[in-house]
């Protein structure tokens, strides 16, 4: 199995590479420290699994995940992070992550999670309440048939971003954001965005 590591700390990548390659059949084919490098290496190296940190210096791992999962024949993506807040989990879920692991997991659990995710499993090594919340968000957004752009906006609403902040982050007009939020609320059967979070 070909694995790409995406983390802005070289020491973390070094440790992960040696841990993952200690298991038979695993090969770390590349390492990236930022978003642009990650997207380029996914296209060039065609990994089976991407192990992706949520915080990449100035870059967002959520955006990297979304871009990777939008590629044809996209690899499996596992978010590997120290952050397990509900907003981060929701955003990763909506971005299409195939797994979500806390950086505190044991080495053997990480190796097994990568193997299971590669085999088309969905591995979320999180406390039960957080995993249930992630599953609920995915189920609700799927049933509501949110468009890809609405999912992006919804993820930012869950992170408590204002409409103006969403417009700036997604490079769209404030008017467009308001339309997306209205559509999301209608599809979810809610009266106001206060009911979302």
Short précis:
The protein is an alpha/beta fold.
Structure, described:
This protein is of the alpha/beta class and 197 residues long. The chain is built from nine helices and eight strands. It has helices at 10-21, 35-45, 61-69, 86-94, 107-118, 128-143, 148-158, 163-170, 174-188; strands spanning 2-6, 27-32, 49-52, 55-56, 59-60, 76-81, 99-102, 123-125. The strands form two sheets. A six-stranded parallel beta sheet has the order 2-1-3-6-7-8, sandwiched between helices. Strand 4 and strand 5 form a beta hairpin. The protein starts with a strand and ends in a 9-residue tail after the last helix. The mean pLDDT is 85.
Question: Notable features of this structure?
Answer:
single chain; 197 residues; alpha/beta; Rossmann fold; Arc Repressor Mutant, subunit A; 2 domains; 6-stranded parallel β-sheet; two-stranded antiparallel sheet; 9 helices; 8 strands; elongated
